[in-house]
Amino acid sequence: MHATISSVSAPSKRVLRWRVVDIVVASVVAVAAGVVFWVWGQAYNPISGPVTAVLPGFQGILNGPWLFAGVLVALIVRKPGAALYGEVVAAVVSMLIGTQWGFATLLSGVVQGLGAEIVFALFLYARWNLVTALIAGAGTGIAESILDLLYSYPGAKPEFAIVYTITTTVSGILVAGLGSWLLVKALARTGALNRFAAGREVTGRV
Fold first, then answer.
1. Which H or E element spans position 166?
2. Known InterPro entries for this protein (predicted)?
3. What are the strands, taking DSSP E only, across 18-145?
4. What angle do CA 25, 70, 187 make, to 5 degrees?
5. Rounded to an integer, what is the distance from CA 127 to the centroid of its chain?
6. CATH of domain 19-199
């Protein structure tokens, strides 16, 4: 009787230790995200000029494609450190390919990853719904805003700082939060995430 009760209750327990499959999938997703980072970096300069002309600081709306890796990896793997790992690996990959920002890319990856990681930690790595994803997206946007205002725009006027922070945060919510959530659901429907809780929730597998 004791063995039967244990076998029934065991699946409900959260396992926070990383498995080999977690490391492999997190790495593959992060590397792919790093390529996206690099591609977006090539497109950024031609786009940012006209966007900045609309309103100083409004270029923060373009930061979302650099913010999604940590949130995406965390939503798939659901383990402590996943957001930080995903964002840092993606940053390193884009830096190795050749990014115009050099070592600052790695610094951004750490800060962005921590911004999302803190949010998931606050939820005790137990809630992986859309609301959590959106808040994590906001967290990585706020973290990047602070870094950029200190590192890239020191001495910026208050109005610039406000617009830049708001637009970067909104971009994080939409691209890193909502975008990652929708991408996980799309991947899950293909069966690619069947070895993860994120996939089984969509397909209905136990």
1. helix 158-171
2. ABC_thiamin-permease_prd (IPR017195)
3. none
4. 50
5. 16
6. 1.10.1760
Torsion of CA 168, 169, 174, 180, to 10 degrees: 100
Q: What rounded mean pLDDT belongs to the chain?
A: 90
Does pTM top 0.85 for this prediction? yes
Query: Cα-flanking dihedrals φ and ψ of residue 63, to 5°?
Result: -80, -15
Contact 173, 134 (CB under 8 A): yes
Q: Any idea what the Cα angle at residue 149 is, between residues 143 and 154, rounded to 5°?
A: 155
DSSP-derived 3-state class of residue 16: coil
Residue 205: the pLDDT is: 57
Structure token digits, residue 32: 């792919």
State pLDDT tens for residues 16-48.
899 999 999 999 999 999 999 999 999 998 898
